[in-house]
Specification:
Subunit structure: Homodimer.
Family: Belongs to the class-V pyridoxal-phosphate-dependent aminotransferase family. SerC subfamily.
Order of helices and strands: EHHEHEHEEEEEEEHHHEEHEEH
Function: Catalyzes the reversible conversion of 3-phosphohydroxypyruvate to phosphoserine and of 3-hydroxy-2-oxo-4-phosphonooxybutanoate to phosphohydroxythreonine.
Protein name: Phosphoserine aminotransferase
Bound molecules: 4'-deoxy-4'-aminopyridoxal-5'-phosphate
Enzyme class: transferase
Distance between the termini: 25 Å
CATH architecture of the largest domain: 3-Layer(aba) Sandwich
Length: 358
């Protein structure tokens, strides 16, 4: 089965097989990893291994902390104003789609003076702003943007220039899909459930000088500094997700790291876009330079065929292709764990469907 879900998403088969094999007896403990104390030496070592693997794979410099937190990406875009902006302080946002909008709304709820300095709603969120076309207020506490919009399938082809203002990025749907220049960012965060494991875990990479700016009344559980000092274990962390993250990071290393991952992901996306563009029957609405490598929405020329397309796809083992309700049509999410063969199978199915049904 090739699973094109936007998340929780397909995971690497070797990782699932390893997790299955050691589920009932983890490291000779006679127990599963689900049942051991997060404060026991075995799990502490497991979490430390995941952290150091993340640092190696993503090339995270030593002046950044890596936090493993519960509450997903939503927890984190909610935590950002509390951690970085006093009530009434200015915070800048780029609005490129549904996930940017949710982060913006949350900042507004927390009494931040939100400045949306670029807004792509006029294109129905099929574009990213031109580099240099927006100005970030110099007194902004941070600039927040979403490098990859999971629903619209829109991705920034560049890292925005925020000057001295800390750049904060929601990497949820593009996390570790290619090399990343961490030093350009103040904070990187994202949920694990697309490229990095099961739901429930958010991975936050935060520059050390940004710790300690939290509001006084922020609950300790949302305070990055408190969590950094507690090695992300102020309370019980999502242990199984952290364990699986470690396995996935080792899988990424064993398959050539992020350079090789980026090349594979780029090639997969290019093939699928080429197939869509070569056809008059399928259409992707996104501006060419802003097309996502990870989430590829497409429509059929006749929406009356959508249900048949989906049923036929399921029948040949291609599942979860239904588009988000706000966009319609189809969406193929092709994260790290989607093999090239899965994309080939999808293209073959699309070609055959067009030939016989269009
Ligand atoms: N940001 C982006 C870009 C996402 O794709 C998602 C989830 N689809 C979220 C945030 C929210 O993540 P979570 O469900 O982990 O809170």
């Amino acid at each position: 089965m090739y699973n094109f879900s936007a998340g929780p998403a397909q995971l690497p088969l070797p990782v699932l097989e390893q997790a299955a094999a050691e589920l009932t007896d983890w490291q000779g403990s006679g127990m599963s990893v689900l049942e051991v104390s997060h404060r026991g030496k075995d799990f502490v070592a497991c979490a430390a291994d995941a952290e150091s693997a993340f640092r190696r794979v993503a090339n995270v410099p030593s002046n950044y902390r890596i936090l493993f937190l519960a509450g997903g990406a939503t927890g984190q875009f909610s935590a950002i104003p509390m951690n970085l902006a006093a009530r009434g302080a200015t915070a800048a946002y780029l609005n490129t789609g549904q996930w940017s909008k949710k982060a913006i709304k949350e900042a507004g709820r927390q009494g931040v003076d939100v400045r949306v300095v670029a807004d792509e709603s006029a294109s129905a969120y099929t574009t990213t702003p031109e580099p240099g076309s927006f100005t970030v207020p110099v007194d902004a506490a941070y600039l927040h943007y979403t490098p990859n919009e999971t629903i619209g399938g829109v991705e920034f082809p560049y890292i925005p220039d925020a000057g001295d203002v800390p750049l904060v990025a929601d990497f949820s749907s593009t996390y570790l899909s290619r090399p990343i220049d961490v030093e350009r960012f103040g904070v990187i965060y994202g949920g694990a459930q697309k490229n990095l494991g099961p739901a429930g875990l958010a991975i936050v990479v935060v520059r050390e000088d940004l710790l300690g700016r939290a509001r006084e009344d922020v609950p300790a559980i949302w305070d990055w500094k408190v969590m950094a000092e507690a090695d992300s274990m102020l309370n019980t962390p999502p242990t199984f997700s952290i364990y699986l993250l470690g396995l996935i990071l080792h899988w990424i290393e064993s398959t050539g790291g992020l350079e090789a991952m980026g090349e594979r992901n780029c090639a997969k996306a290019e093939r699928l876009y080429a197939a869509i563009d070569a056809s008059d029957f399928y259409n992707n609405p996104v501006q060419a330079r802003s097309r996502s490598w990870m989430n590829i929405p497409f429509t059929l020329a006749d929406p009356a065929l959508d249900a048949d397309f989906l049923a036929g796809a399921d029948a040949v083992g291609l599942t979860n292709l239904k588009g988000h309700r706000s966009v319609g049509g189809m969406r193929a999410s092709i994260y790290n764990a989607m093999p090239a063969d899965g994309v080939t199978a999808l293209i073959d199915y699309m070609t055959e469907f067009e030939r016989t049904r269009a």
